[in-house]
Amino acid sequence: MKIYRILVALVVLSLPLFGQETKDAAPKGGATSIFTVSDGSTLRKAEWSFADYLPQDKTLDSKLMGRNMPYQVVLPSGYTKSSDEDIKFPVIYLLHGLTGHFNNWTDKTKVIEYAEKYRVILVFPEGGDGWYTDSVSNEKEKYESYIIKELIPEIEKNYRVDKRREARAIAGLSMGGYGSLKFGLKYPDMFVIAGSFSGALGAAEITEKNFPGSIGKSIDAIFGPADSDTRRANDIFDIVRKTTPEKIKTLPYFYIDCGTEDFLFQTNRDFISLLTEKKIPHEYRQLPGTHNWQYWDSQVKEFFRVASQKLSNGKELACADNPAHFCGGGETTLGRPISIEEIKALPPRP
User: Fold this and answer.
1) CA–CA–CA angle 94, 98, 101 (5° rounding)
2) Buried-most residue among 11, 140, 157, 168 (CB within 10 A)?
3) Cα gap 258→198, rounded to integer Å
4) Extended strands (E) in the chain
5) How many helices (H) and strands (E) does the chain have?
6) 340 in Cβ contact with 45 (< 8 Å)
7) pTM for this entry
C-alpha cells in the first residue's frame, strides 16, 4: 500500500496542478460608498470600505528565508470601519499547491465571496515548491519555520486578530493539504481545525530513487535521505501512527476531502483509515471530482462552513447568527451578509 501511495502521488505531481479557472470574485469599485439598506421596517445608513474585500498584497522581511516573502490578506467586512478596538477576528490560513503561489486562491476561486458571510481574516502565504518544510540542504528554504515563527506573529502584530488557538484555522490544496495537516499534527496548540483538499499526503515517501528526475531530486533536497530523521519527522502517516492517546486529545479537528477521480484518492483513503484506527476526530468527504480548481473552489466553500462551527470555541461565525457585530460592515441591523453583487452595484461615494 505504501508503494501504491508513492506511485499515485508521483503521477499527479508530474501533471499541471492548475485545472479550470473560475471567475475572479473580488469586487471592484471606489474606496468607500454610502448607501441605505432595509430590513422591511427600518432604514439604516451603512458605510462600506471596498478595501475590506480586495486582496491586499503584502511582504514580510523574513530573517529565516533571507528575503522578502509575499503574502495576501483579505479582511472581513467592516474591519476598517470598526471603531471598537476590542473586536478581534479569527484567522484562516490557506496554503497553495505545488508550482503555485500565494495569490492562486484569490485569482482562481471565489474564496472572497464564500468568506463574506463569516467574520474572519484570510491569509494566503507563499510556499514556493518547498512542501511547507524546512529544507535539510538549503538554510534559506525554511517554509515551515517561516510560517509558524514569522508570518503568524506578523499577522497577529499588524491586525486585530484573536490570538487564541480557538480562533486560528489552516487548510490547503494538494501540497498545501499536506502542509496544513502536518502543521495541525505538529503544532496542535496553534490550530483548532486543519483542512486538506486533494492533499498530497504521501509526500514524505517520495525519493529520487523511486521517482527519478527533478521532482524526486527536489524532494530529496528538502526532506533528506529515505528513512532519515527528517523524513520521519515530516511523514504525517508516521506522525499519526506514533501519536499517543493523550496527544490525540490535544489535536485539532481534521477536515479532509478528495475527488473520486483524483490520482491522490487512494492516498487520502489510506490516511483516513489510519485516523479512524487511531480514533482521531475528523470528517472525510469523497465526491466526484479531479485535481483541479473547479473541485477546490467548491470544497473551500464547504470548509468555511465547517470551520465556522469550530472557530472561536465553537461559536457560529456567520453574520446571520451574529447580528450584533458588523454584519456586512456597516451600521445595519439586517443580520445578514450583503452579496458580492450588491456590493458591486453600490453607487460611488458623493
Assistant:
1) 55
2) 168
3) 5
4) 32-38, 43-49, 56-62, 67-74, 91-95, 121-125, 168-173, 193-197, 253-259, 282-287
5) 13, 10
6) no
7) 0.80
Alpha helices (H) in 70-150, listed in sequence order: 104-108, 111-115, 143-145
What's at 153, amino acid-wise? P
- Rounded Cα gap, residues 307 and 269, in angstroms: 22
Amino acid letter for position 194:
A
Angle (deg, nearest 10), helices 2-13 and 265-277 = 140
According to DSSP, the residues that pair with 133 across neighbouring strands are none
H/E stretch holding 340 reads helix 340-344
For residue 289, the one-letter residue type is G
In this predicted structure, the answer to whether residue 327 has a pLDDT above a threshold of 50 is no
Q: Which residues contact 115 (CB under 8 A, 6 or more apart)?
A: 74, 76, 92, 122, 304
Distance CA 121, CA 75 (A): 5
CA-wise closest residue to 197 among 289, 119, 118, 276: 289
Residue 271, C-alpha cell as written in the block: 490516511
| pLDDT tens column, 78-96 | 787 655 667 889 999 999 9
**Residue 193 corresponds to which cell in the numbers above?**
481545525
Edge-to-edge order in the sheet of strand 253-259: 56-62, 67-74, 121-125, 91-95, 168-173, 193-197, 253-259, 282-287
pLDDT in tens, 267-306: 999 999 999 999 999 999 999 999 999 999 999 999 999 9
* Cα separation, 19 vs 232, whole angstroms: 32
Cα 350 to chain centroid distance, Å, stands at 38
